[in-house]
Protein: Acyl-CoA dehydrogenase
Organism: Amycolatopsis vastitatis
Amino acid sequence: MPIEFTVDEHVARLAGRVREFVREVVVPEEQACDGVLHDGPEPLRRRLQQAARDAGVFAPHLRLDLRGQAVVFEAAGYSLLGPLALNIAAPDEGNMHLLAKVAGEDQRKRYLAPLEAGEIRSCFAMTEPAPGAGSDPRALSTTAARITGGWRIDGRKWFISGADGAAFAICMARTGGAPGDAGGATMFLVDAGNPGMKIVRNIATLDEGLFGGHSEIAFDGCEVGDEAVLGEVDRGFDYAQVRLGPARLTHCMRWLGIARRAQDVALDRAASRSAFGRPLEELGMVQQLIADSEIDIEAARALLWRACWELDQGRPGAQHTSIAKTFVAEAVHRVVDRAVQICGALGISADAPLSRLYREVRPFRIYDGPSETHRWAIARRASKARAAVR
Amino acid sequence: MPIEFTVDEHVARLAGRVREFVREVVVPEEQACDGVLHDGPEPLRRRLQQAARDAGVFAPHLRLDLRGQAVVFEAAGYSLLGPLALNIAAPDEGNMHLLAKVAGEDQRKRYLAPLEAGEIRSCFAMTEPAPGAGSDPRALSTTAARITGGWRIDGRKWFISGADGAAFAICMARTGGAPGDAGGATMFLVDAGNPGMKIVRNIATLDEGLFGGHSEIAFDGCEVGDEAVLGEVDRGFDYAQVRLGPARLTHCMRWLGIARRAQDVALDRAASRSAFGRPLEELGMVQQLIADSEIDIEAARALLWRACWELDQGRPGAQHTSIAKTFVAEAVHRVVDRAVQICGALGISADAPLSRLYREVRPFRIYDGPSETHRWAIARRASKARAAVR
Amino acid sequence: MPIEFTVDEHVARLAGRVREFVREVVVPEEQACDGVLHDGPEPLRRRLQQAARDAGVFAPHLRLDLRGQAVVFEAAGYSLLGPLALNIAAPDEGNMHLLAKVAGEDQRKRYLAPLEAGEIRSCFAMTEPAPGAGSDPRALSTTAARITGGWRIDGRKWFISGADGAAFAICMARTGGAPGDAGGATMFLVDAGNPGMKIVRNIATLDEGLFGGHSEIAFDGCEVGDEAVLGEVDRGFDYAQVRLGPARLTHCMRWLGIARRAQDVALDRAASRSAFGRPLEELGMVQQLIADSEIDIEAARALLWRACWELDQGRPGAQHTSIAKTFVAEAVHRVVDRAVQICGALGISADAPLSRLYREVRPFRIYDGPSETHRWAIARRASKARAAVR
Amino acid sequence: MPIEFTVDEHVARLAGRVREFVREVVVPEEQACDGVLHDGPEPLRRRLQQAARDAGVFAPHLRLDLRGQAVVFEAAGYSLLGPLALNIAAPDEGNMHLLAKVAGEDQRKRYLAPLEAGEIRSCFAMTEPAPGAGSDPRALSTTAARITGGWRIDGRKWFISGADGAAFAICMARTGGAPGDAGGATMFLVDAGNPGMKIVRNIATLDEGLFGGHSEIAFDGCEVGDEAVLGEVDRGFDYAQVRLGPARLTHCMRWLGIARRAQDVALDRAASRSAFGRPLEELGMVQQLIADSEIDIEAARALLWRACWELDQGRPGAQHTSIAKTFVAEAVHRVVDRAVQICGALGISADAPLSRLYREVRPFRIYDGPSETHRWAIARRASKARAAVR
């Protein structure tokens, strides 16, 4: 089979439907969630997801490989609300992937099924305040101690997206070893309402999550039964990899949609607004901004597809995933930044979606491994690969 | 007199006092204005300004040339609240400069004196929605028509900073010619409460002004007397230049303080936080971020001082002002962006001041002439200068 | 057919053989052509091409589509002499492509066959000194006037690569219209030795062509018969497009090989050289340089493959070709620049191949359309595409 | 004394004369040294220096502080031959500075006087092949062993600029300690013709030195008398600092002249050459290149002047010197690169001086400490400075 950039016909058709759905249904809802949501975000989510079901675009990830997801998720990402509507937003989408791979029968019924159906939301509780698990997951400090018939979890997590309102958390805790060790982690399914799990606060961040942003959570003598163990004891770090690789890429897919949206807003503005007697789109410096963003978007997409293909083939794909993540996060930021510049005062006002997108994309260079950590890993792998053939 | 970078002793002493005042008094107040101000921002302003008076650092601009201001304003800009405390924040500081140069005796008593004393605030109403006065001021569309004993102003302004709560506006309106003409503008002093001047809305923007951000204002049959004319009729564009040149530079001074603050926050974090077994400040990629920011800050300061010197000498200084404004706005943004990256998740959370600074600095590349307009002007002047010696 | 990055097995095998051939046979010859070639470059070319024949890797382009060429040409480009050895160097490779598409039976026998066999070399005479055909081909000023039984060509060409020693030139001349017109150009096959075609000088350039660099050629009453017309009269601009699209991409393929070579040289150095007590490859700033080059190489390759696929499908592909050309030319430059930096003094000395590569790659951002022209075209196409769906 | 950018009148007058001399006398000679110099470079040097004496601009550094040198050297650097003509080229200029500070009476007569008069040339032999003294001078491996009445030097040096034809070398050798130690180095004055000092080869480099480029020198049982010791035994590292600080800055001054020259060549081209119906200088993307170079030049000059001022005040100045060196070397490279791009094919041909300048400036980011080493030092000093006030 040769190098091939054709998109499968059924994927192309689905992506086309998603594009139309986002443009016709989701984008008009955006203003709502920028202002005050008098009935909270939950009704908005239910309304959007029902519309997606009606349009036949709900939960498309369940029947697509990563390359197919790349095309469809980018289309959905064109609005910040798109992934929510299609039930492919983080962290639920990554959790579904993880549960589908690791959960037992009962757990699938109880957690995965309603999650796929959009009946509940979830969160993934791994990151801890310093000196706990951050860019180095092995620093995991939260502990799960054996008690009769179950476990008692103690520790603190933060920057846990979507925790506020989630029906359950997947909590990573140390069942063996000490902070710094490469093994000994276990994942637990903890139900909201467990008296030992408390949301301490919602951390205000540059990006405005729709659902209370990113929470700090205290696990304080949080007792769970044996049936709460996800997969096997002590295999938590392995499962984290199962989740993280594809989750990085699905993040990139959604971000790419944001970049395309920003570029379109900028192109519209450049066509309609004049300066010094000519439309902006005919001014050389504006053309340079536009062209650089086109190049960035194309390169981001090509690298992303490449990484998806690697994972779809069952190859390790760590190098391609790191490269794609680093480039896409930085390229998306550049594209939105250029769009803001082209739109001028409008670009930084809430009258256009750009300032919202701008706040949303800056953290991408930090989330899922900061660019520096990925560059370090990329360089090390390059050095090793070269040493192997020297 | 040779090239000289010594700071005058009295300026150095004053800057030292300002630095201490900001560190001891202003920075601790920052949390207050990030959260809810139950009694509104005005009490905060009065409290801070009284503290500045007590510390002997209030309104220092009245006794400094631009080079002196460069040193002192940078020290004040270390906190977003610093310039407010010292009564050297935009737009009041620029308005004071303008009034001091152009206002008549009565106007000075009525507007300048209480402004200098911090008793009132003001705004500057020039920018208009498309197709009015934007990056091209000659597109001015608001009109002032002669009536008996005065003028009637009609038109719309937007992105008018500080309008909400201002005691008066300096409004630019066309008393002659048509949009596109290089002359025919006049400045008017319009009191808040004039029934013909209404704040339509406060435009939400990426940067969060303390006082309602940036307003849209409607002038609708707004009648003012002859004594409302600032300076002479039809000389508004000249006066705008009087205000704009130094105002661009004082903006840069305050921004530079922001950059220094961000860098210090990053340095503190890099010293206290470890990754992979070493403090961040010992990791090469972090050192590169730190070094690049040091270089940016030094270059920004040197270009700024140069432009200030040009204006202090009474030279035209347009080229040096454009160069300084363009470089400083972009450098400050890079410095804050790098600081965010060094601080990671903390950098994008409200637990550190960086995410607030980050939102604040992006618009600098657009305000006071977007980088592209300045580059266009810089290139044209360079071409002309070269042609002259060819 | 889904998105696919597998390389066809026969292509992969061929590329593997080329890689080995370049490493074992071609790289060791490099020193020879950096110093004085006492018997001139022609014997070197013949020796290398014979070795390529013996290794079964000669003239591989004749049996590969563009995607296959992308893989194989990159492998050949690992040495500046590689493409020469395989007979896929510019301008011959592009001329073969053009002749294969357009030449008549007799022309194929007389020009294409010996060219494919490596018996002769050729050149492509299109570019003219200002105000002639440069980045704007329509400025074509060289004329071909009808004479009995043929044409008389008058005009001047420059930067004609490989002219010195070429057996024939493909000369573009105006048979109709005037400079600035979009039509009226015809291609002529002019034999070396025609008394009306003279090499005026070889222009010294930053890149050192192996064969006299880039020549300036005078056509002065140069008479050719009707059989010298390539394809049809007045269709020269169409044929130029036939040649240019793929030629841009084959250039990119060879350049990419240069980038990979530079990166390998840098990786070897970073592994063997220490500073401050650690191998360079463990220093963060060096890792950043290495990682950025890996990212650049991967993105360049992905964009290039994409553009090749577009042309292989028979699509227009102008946008993807422009994007690939612009990105690859700039990325290759960055990669070589970083490699020079990593290698330090060695990097700028002739003791390593980098300084030679460095000189070679700078012109890529100018040849085949400067980056600015491509960006202008990319922006215009983006604006049009957006307008179509608005 | 306030911040001041006025250039002293006598410096301004001198710089004016230098500018005129370079334009009228030196630039016309440039073509000569790009081609074959049938009588070698030495006659050219003597001719140019006599012309400089006649014009009253010879050896101006002897009567200027660093700020004055900054202005005059930049004027001289406008041509690559300018510093040679004025006898302020590296390495002679740095050696004169060192000798003036450290040499004894006899040494001054014998070495300094004829050097200042332009009668002889010299070289500075410090850098060694790996694992010797490179970016880390303490790795010094060349030894000087005590013999009766003098010393015997053994070791190998390379990248020694101007060695070919120099009347003497200042050789740094270890008289105590072992490679890696921070002390124990001594400087020796070694006459050309000493049978123990041999030029092994001239290393071909990207930049083409006028005098045989950069040599590799073998010290093989090289015997010198006690009078050959420069300053005191074991103080070589101190003296190296005496030489290096100002030498870095004088390098920057000359480079800045190169940048200004490149920008002028580009401005001339942009004024005279048209594309798409308009002069290049009116195209937005070209204007951006021009403006960015103006900004770079102004920032480079401001940082350079600042560092000069620090040293002129007798302050340590290491941070400002590092910042200036790093920024200037990179900015100069960008300026020349942009000029090449603006000039297109002409820019990479020897028909314009740019390709020569381009080759010349790349090594600046490596010479006198690579950018990475300076950034490391800048970051460390910034961290320390912050820790001190924390």
Chain B touches chain D through 55 residues (CB under 8 Å). Chain B is about 50% helix and 15% strand. The mean pLDDT of chain B is 94. Chain B has three domains: 9-89, 122-234, 238-389.
